Structures are given as structure tokens and as C-alpha cells.
Amino acid sequence: MKTFFTGLILLILFTTGCENGENTINPSEVGFVMKMNNQTVINFSDIDHYDFSTHMVYLKHDFFYFQNDELHDMDEFTVYADGEKIYTGHTFPGYYSYMPKGTVIQCNPNFYSDYVVHIGFINIIDTLGNPTPDPRGDPRIVAALKRFNQYHEGLKGEIRSVTYMNQYRVKFEFTLINEDSFNYYYLDPDKMGADLFHYFTNGLHIRDEATHKSYSHKMKVESPESYKTWKKEWLSLIKSGETKTLTITYDRFEVVPPGIYTARFNFPGLHWVDKQALKQDQGRIWLGKISFQKEIIVQ
User: Fold this and answer.
1) What's the total number of domains in the chain?
2) In which order are the strands placed within the sheet that holds 102-107?
3) Could you report the per-residue pLDDT of 166-180, keeping only the tens digit for each?
4) What is the domain-level CATH number for residue 173?
5) Which of 89, 121, 146 represents a domain boundary (last residue)?
6) Which pTM was predicted?
7) In terms of Cα–Cα distance, which of 103, 100, 132 is closest to 119?
8) How many CA atoms lie less than 13 Å away from 295 in the CB half-sphere?
């Protein structure tokens, strides 16, 4: 109700500004807006909330635009915040052999439910070692979302430690941090088992930045019945303001020579959850993934 009245007040203000001859933007383009081919496909009135940890737009209704069979090429989309152009990106069909860079929306297939639009980012390092800038975190987008109470922090994560118990056995500790106002259900490796958990993530990777060589686990991954399969028994709750420490022990990790490395980990969430199941008794199911890294020393 608060969002409705905020939107109504803004519409009145913008309309009044137009009547007074002021240079204002179209009332339908306030807040977060996405356009394709100069057509608005998402505006503030379509959005339930935006998870900034995963850059996933949760919509009030199912949205089939990115399932359109006509999106075969690298079609361009543009994101605006309160009428100001922030960045452009491309749709990325799953069958496409070319890997784009920058902001992308995967389609054909879309691995998320139809009420979610995931804005991804592919970071390409150029020949000088410079990464592609990620424009999704622009503060103007944050301000536009907060105008309609649509901004949410989502989850954050940090690597605490990577401990070698012997040459092949690695103990990996990390924390999950919930600074959002939502409580979230997350995939718990202890409840579902490490083998099944690693169906949803590649797990811990240790990278030598000088040689670009990476080391990883050799565990046997367990697959669910289908990519849409999930059980509430796999999930644990992290409440708003809470921090949790999780541990994964790898019994078969590649041998890593002594040195300085970057440890990387993608913490996964579910992808395909029906909208009516998204809200559980104590919180929401967290979708997507977050990445974190830490410099470590292997002795």
C-alpha cells in the first residue's frame, strides 16, 4: 500500500510539473525502467522488488518476454533510473557460440521462473589486464528502486579460511551475511549433503594469478531428479541481520604447491521455484548465486 501511494504522489508531482511547463520525465519512466527496441518492457509498476546481491528483478506477474522465440540474436536492452540512461546490455541465447561481455540476460532457455529477470554480468579481462566495468551497482539505480521501496540487499558472503588438513583434505569455512529486511531460506550443504550441494555450484577454486592455473575438488557430484527439483528439507533460515558460518570439507582436492593464491567460491541458491512457493512460513527462498574471494597462503 505504501508503494502504491508513493507512486501516486510521484505521478501527481510529475503531472503538475508538466502543467507548469517544467522539464520533467514521463511519469511511467520514474524508478527502474528497462527498454528493448525503444519499447518499455519493465517499469516501476511491474516490480515487486530487486535483489541487489544477485541483480534479479522480481516481478508482480509472470513475464514471458525473454522466452520469445524471436530473441535469436544479441538484442540490446537499456536500463534507466528515473529517466536517466544508465547502461545497455544484450540478450544472450543459450545456444549462441559467441561469449558476450558486460551485462547480459540469458534467454532461450531462461533458467529462472517467469516472474524473475536475472541481469547477469560477464567480466572479460582485456590484454592490459583491465576488467570490464560492472554498471549494475550504479547508485542512481539504488536511489530509483528505493523511491518505491523495491531495493533489497539480498545476501552477502565472505571466505573465512581455507585450511589444508593434509595434502588432499581441505577444510573450507565461509560466512553468509543477511543485511536485508527479508529472512531468507538458503541451500544448506549440511542438510542436503555436499555431493548434492555441488550440483548447484562448482565449489571452491584456488587460482594462481601469475600462471592462471586453477585447482579444485574431485568429489562425485549428485544430481537431483531434474533441474526444477528441490525440497524444503535442503534449506535453512538466515534471519534479517544474522550472520552464519558454514563449513565444507573436501576429502579429494587437487594438490596445490606452496604459494600465494586467490580462493574463489560461488555460493548457490535455487533457480526454479514456483512463485506461490517463494514465500515460506518464516521467510523467502533466496534464488541466484553470489561470488566471493580471498587471498590465501598455502604452505
Assistant:
1) 2
2) 39-42, 32-36, 76-81, 84-93, 102-107, 120-122
3) 989 999 999 999 999
4) 2.60.40.2970
5) 146
6) 0.86
7) 103
8) 3
